[in-house]
Amino acid sequence: MKRYFTLIGIAFHVSFYVHSQQVDCTNIGFETGGTLGWVLTNGSLNSSTQKVNFINEITGTVNNRHYITQLSDGADPKVTAEKIPMVAPGSTHSIRIGNTVQGGTFDRIKTSFVVSPERPIFQYQFAVVLQNDSRHEDYQKAGFNILISDSNGQPLTCNAFSAQLQKGGIIEGFKKQGDIEYRNWSTGAIDLRNYIGRTINVEVTAHGCTEMRHYGYAYFDAQCLKAEIKPTSLCPDAEGYMTVKAPEGFGNYTWQDGQTQSTVRIKANLGDVYSVKISPLDKLNESCQFQLDYQVKFYQADTTINLTLCEGESYRVDNTVYNTTGNYVNTIRRANVCDSTIRLNLKIIPIARHSQSFTICEGQTIRVGDSTYIKTGTYLNSIRRASGCDSIITTTLLVEKMQPIVPQPQTVVQGDSILLETSIEPSGHFTTQWSPATGLSCPTCTTTWAHPSSSTTYTILFKNESQICQQTQKVVVSVLPCNVYIPDVFSPNNDQKNDVFFVYGNTCVKIIKEMVIYNRWGETVFKAENFPFSDASYGWNGQYLGKILEGVYAYKILVEFRNGETNMYRGAVALIP
Fold first, then answer.
1. Highest mean pLDDT among 146-150, 189-193, 310-314
2. CB 312 within 8 A of CB 324
3. What was the pLDDT predicted at 220?
4. What is the CATH number of domain 403-480?
5. Are strands 377-384 and 175-177 parallel, antiparallel or unpaired?
6. DSSP string, 486-526
7. S-S: 288 plus which of 79, 158, 362, 396, CB 3.0-4.6 Å?
């Protein structure tokens, strides 16, 4: 539907009264994306008279309680049992009216329009979402109704549809989801041919419960339709039949010959009248059924048709089908019903065909029109051009793969170097660029020696042979300080555990220049020079003059490092037999 109202509210109320604003039928369904011609109001509720009372009405809107919906809004977020689009079927915009969070308020839209002879059928659609509870009285609950009246306030036929939440039951035509009762898009219509030139006033109201807590809202949309049956061709076919079409978007069609489609094939006899009775969707009110008539008339004309079509499309004139560019003349005579000359100027726009090739890396995508591709293959897409015709695009896609493999976090002693090796899967030629380059033997090689002075995180940029795939990985090299470890206790009891006192060192140590141990009287009990570190065979076994005596012994140890520096360590070690 091109133009609809959309109602939102626990109570939804549409009335047609005299209002200061008047809307053109072209925006009666909010298709311009705004509310031009409509008055928006809101207010509060009470139920002091055991019915819903609308009080403190003011002009304006608050908190999106009059919200123009669009296709990108998707479906209603509260109803998940089935999808309720926020825009009426066939439309691009609708209106949501009402509070979607709580009750205690009402929201309303008002307008009026003059019934035109061109479009005297008023068709409306609505969807409703109401939150129920088990404590409120019926007159305190959410409700919804539609009323239509003339400029004097007199209700019109098909003017009413109402729904009021109740205790212990579901509203007819509604469905239940938890504490929500809802109705998906439904359609009503009213024949206003008896009101041509007169003003019809519109008022739409949506409200929640009177006790503040429970929300209700609805979606609404509408359009003005032509009250006519139209022939789909100028003249009958060779068998004397013609096809006629009633307005679309209604629930039931009953033709005088029993056919029940909106489009039917009839025998074209001059002066014959064919009638169809039309009912709105959902049969909101059987009295809303109205009748349209079509009389077969004599048709005589000299018609010129200028037409542009796309390759693959065709145009039919009588029994002749045309699908190539050219100028054609057809004369159609059908007994006393039709005498027509049709001049067809036809232009066929050829399909544009384009081929393209792409190479991407795994994880990347290629988008062609509305399609996204991630795998190697050949793909065809039809894309609509500005002319309205399709372009056929053939896309050949190659997806390359590259998974870099790097070392786990590494540890190196200060002053030492470590070999860092990289590779890729699947195997093949690739290049690397290491950063930072400081301390690396080859920052552009796949394998390099690293000699960092401090802990460093290397970032490696990988590129495959085509350089289509580019990835970065990181390698952490932690640098331990250059140092020695001297125990503070040992126990030479031949248990093979900590039996010897000696110096531990890492690879930055070159040699132990001297180790001297003294007893408490200052006597030298052990001395060794120029021996390797971390070697127990060069340590002290605890003996002095053939005896092992418990006590605390002082030491001084001179260590030479690979960088040429020396350091003297002094301390004490406890001997425990």
1. 310-314
2. no
3. 93
4. 2.60.40.10
5. unpaired
6. --SEE--SSSSSS-SB--EE-TTEEEEEEEEEE-TTS-EEE
7. 158
d(CA 181, CA 161): 16
Per-residue pLDDT, 440? 96
Q: What is the DSSP letter of 32?
A: T
Given a contact cutoff of 8 angstroms between Cβ atoms, the answer to whether 42 and 60 are in contact is yes
CB contact set of 521 (below 8 Å; sequence gap of 6+): none
* Residue 575 · residue 553 · CB < 8 Å: yes
| Extended strands (E) in 226-298 | 230-231, 241-245, 252-255, 263-267, 273-279, 290-295
Pairing of strands 66-70, 423-425: unpaired
By CB neighbour count within 10 A (0-12 exposed, 13-18 middle, 19+ buried), where does 558 fall? middle
Cα distances from 356 to residues 362, 368, 381, 382, 398, in angstroms, run 19, 10, 11, 14, 11
Domain ranges of the chain: 11-225, 230-295, 299-349, 352-394, 403-480, 484-575
DSSP 28: T
* pLDDT > 60? residue 263: yes
Q: Do domains 11-225 and 403-480 have the same CATH topology?
A: no
Within 10 Å of residue 78's Cβ, how many Cβ atoms? Answer: 15
- Tell whether pTM > 0.70: no
Alpha carbons within 13 angstroms on the beta-carbon side of residue 469 total 21
Q: Which residues contact 217 (CB under 8 A, 6 or more apart)?
A: 7, 8, 9, 10, 12, 96, 97, 98, 99, 100, 128, 129, 206
Chain center to CA of 465: 37
User: pLDDT tens digit string along 8-38?
Assistant: 333 344 443 445 567 777 678 898 899 988 8
- Give the DSSP H/E element, type plus range, for residue 245: strand 241-245
| pLDDT at residue 197 tops 70 | yes
Joined tokens for residue 82: 């089935």
What are the DSSP calls for 169-216, one per residue? S--TT-EEETTEEEEEEEEEEEE-GGGTTSEEEEEEEEE--TTSS--E
CA proximity to 201, closest of 116, 120, 111: 111
Q: Which amino acid belongs to residue 141?
A: K
Read off φ and ψ for residue 538, nearest 5 degrees. Answer: -105, 10
Cα separation, 442 vs 71, in Å, equals 58
Report how far residue 289's alpha carbon sits from residue 424's, in angstroms, rounded to the nearest whole number: 74
From CA 560, how far away is CA 567, in angstroms rounded? 7
373 bridge partner residues:
366
Amino acid at 503: V
Q: Quote the CA–CA distance of 466 and 386 in Å, as a whole number.
A: 37
Distance CA 333, CA 97 (A): 55
Indicate the fold that domain 484-575 takes in CATH. Immunoglobulin-like (2.60.40)
Q: What is the CATH number of domain 11-225?
A: 2.60.120.260
